[in-house]
Amino acid sequence: VQLVESGGGLVQPGGSLRLSCAASGFTFKNYVLSWYRQAPGKERELVADITSGGSITNYAASVKGRFTISRDNIKNTVYLQMNSLKPEDTAVYYCHTRFPSDSYWGQGTQVTVSS
User: Fold this and answer.
1) Cα–Cα distance measured from residue 100 to residue 59, given in angstroms and rounded to the nearest whole number
2) Number of H helices and number of E strands within the chain?
3) What span, in angstroms and rounded, lies between the C-alpha atoms of 91 and 30?
4) Contact 90, 114 (CB under 8 A)
5) What mean pLDDT value characterizes the chain?
6) Taking a C-beta distance cutoff of 8 angstroms, is the pair 107, 1 a contact?
7) How far apart are CA 38 and CA 35, in angstroms?
8) Host H or E run for residue 94
9) Would the CA dihedral through 97, 43, 6, 34 be positive or negative?
C-alpha cells in the first residue's frame, strides 16, 4: 500500500490550494479515504473523509464550508480543495486509509498559510 501526497506549499491568507493523494497497492474504490493534519505541538486531527463511492463526506467543524474532499476511483486519487485558507490551517496534511486490520498513512505534505 502506498499513499503519496502532493500539492502543499506556501499561500497567503484567503488563498487556495488543492492537495492530491495518489494511491496504489490496494483496491482503492473499496475504501474510505481521509485527510488528517498535524500542526506543530498539536495532535493529528481528522480534516475530512469520503466514502468508497464518494457519495458521503464528513468534515471537521473548523474547515466545513471552506474545504472539499473528492475522489477519482479511476485515477485512484483523493483530493482536498482548500479555499479561504487561514493561518491556523498551517500543518502537515496526511492522506489515510484503514483496512480491517491495518492503517496506512502517506508521508505528508506541508501547508503554510502566511503573509
Assistant:
1) 22
2) 0, 11
3) 28
4) yes
5) 97
6) no
7) 10
8) strand 91-98
9) positive
Residue 81 half-sphere exposure, CB side, CA atoms within 13 Å? 6
Tell me the sheet residues that pair with 67. Answer: 82
**Cα within 13 Å of Cα(113), Cβ side:** 18
Nearest to 31 by CA among 107, 109, 96: 96
Amino acid residing at 67: F
pLDDT tens, 28-60?
A: 999 999 999 999 999 999 999 999 999 999 999
| Sole residue written with cell 482548500 | 82
Q: How far is Cα of residue 97 from the mean position of the Cα atoms in its chain?
A: 11
> Which residues neighbour 10 within 8 Å (Cβ) at sequence distance 6 or greater?
112, 114
Averaged in consecutive runs of 10 residues, what is the pLDDT profile of the chain (115 residues)?
97 98 96 97 97 96 98 98 98 96 96 97
Do 35 and 78 touch, CB atoms closer than 8 A? yes
The x, y and z cell numbers of residue 19, run together, are: 492537495
Q: What cell numbers appear for 84 in the block? A: 479561504
